[in-house]
Write the structure tokens for this entry.
Amino acid sequence: MCGIAGFYRTEQVADPQELIEQMLAALHHRGPDGAGTYHGEDFSLGMTRLAIIDIEGGRQPISNETDELVIVCNGEIYNHVVLRKELEAKGHIFRTHSDVEVALHLFEEMGVESFRELNGMFALAILDRRRRTLTLARDPFGQKPLYFLNQENGFGFASELKALRRMPGFVPTVDDRALSSYLCFRYVPHPQSILEGAEKLSPGSWMRVDSEGRLEQGRYFQVDFRPAVRTLRDPDGEIIYQVLRNAVERHLMSERPLGVYLSGGLDSAAIVALMADLGVRDIRTYSIGCQGFEQNEFENARKIAERFKTNHVEVELSPDDFIRTLETTAVHSDEPMADLTSVLLYRLSEVARRDVVVVLSGEGSDELLGGYGGTEDIQRRFWTLQRTKPFRPIARILSQLAPRRFARKLDTLARTPAQYLEREVWNCCNVLSDDEARKAYARFPSQFDPYGGLRDLYRQRPDWEGLDLTMAAQVEWWLPDDLLHKADRMSMANSIELRCPFLDCEFVELCSRLAIKDKVDFRDSRYVRKIALKKAFEHRLPSGIATQPKKGFPLAAYGWLTKELRDYMRAQLLGPGRYLRSQFDLKFLETIDDSAAAGDPAAQTKAWMLIVLGLWADFWLAADPTSIRERQPSATGSEALMLGNS
């Protein structure tokens, strides 16, 4: 695990070593255990290392036997042992025990097709000295970040935007399209980044750049939920249990201490149960909640910790703790990202780093298994459309002849699920509507459709069913740019590696083949979600844990806007000289402020989205921001409570 950065030489780079050192300094939090650089004729590479695998011998950059290929990689390759044996049988000679060196030799053997074979989370760069090309790649789901900048005076890449800011000639300017997307989604979807000129490499993609700056891009992975693929039944959950057990076992590889973020829900509880089943001793678990908040999951987390005899730590945040930590996360997020659970995740990582260097977490389960609230409503709607499939040709004709008040309903019946979603695009975390955002933000581009990427996703899958399309959108949009973005930034800000066993390639492939009735179905007079996973663990966990409703991280911050943080909200939204007041319609801001203070949940969501944007702008748009460590506010939070069960 580390941070990576690099560039190709331009006339403006007078001292390549100085530039790469500046870029790496901005990534020090990602890899405090060491750093390495490589300078070729055209390209320079660098990395900061958090040593986890092959602590003594796995320093980067790493080259192959002939020194023609050089790699820097951020991440872990969980199937590296198997791949190493196959490569050694073909004559490849290894210099280290590092998983990163396996990725390098596999690329030497297969080129860009090699990325399909890697089961892991990674962002990597491979320099081909002979061909004078640089190849970048990102893991299938975007667990590890990778930004790039291609401008007239040079190409650069880095794990975080902070490092790209060091590139000569790069002036941080807000991209109006990206900001418009943020207003609708509360995050910036790939390949956009919030800064003009910089982009994110999409998950499951690769890019090649030559010494002249010419780019070539391709995609090696997309999740496949086609009906023809979904043929596997697992009514008792035993298949899903065994495959997930294998995934967790792979994710335990580490030469440093390891723990689990325990929310009290099914996903993280399943990981703890499997670790115990695998014989892991001294399991360390960490839970977090908000001070005085009734919806904290401490009670359920304690039941799980007691059942599996973990060493358990609880952390509570007060309103003041929350604000101090929020201002820190706004710096570390790179881009504005108004998922407030970032604050809890940052604080949890800060506490966990006292004991461990690696943590396991449950991200990915809901997207792959239909776990979100409202999923059953989507399924019910599309089952209705499915039953009317034989009548689509008739409905299509009648919709052209019927009065207007009936024509839209008939038109809906005439459409496939993909066509329906393309028109009625669904966004699981909508903040402002398209129209509302345009009125509030005068620089919203007139012809820009923030939902265009989602419409393309549906359009490219014309034969998929509705719920499959919805889950694909969650996997390709919501997962990488919200959940995994915050997971990476908040953990790595504290020099801790977060791993997601549910995103193991073997487990994802199983979920792709799993029948829809083992994900979402109508049973016992109600709709049930994540059926196979619940079946697998309902008798392996404390009573009620597997079947409880989904809650997510407990968060009191919305309610705090009515009292404890009311003055803070007003100062952020309407304070003189603030970024928000200079960019947004004043009446809009005043309405949000008044409505949020009065307890309107929708307005509170919008208020926090704007507050996060303002905090981000304060740091990122400064003419000469100081280093992250100098700017980082103190956020000690309440004392953690240790609940030892060993």
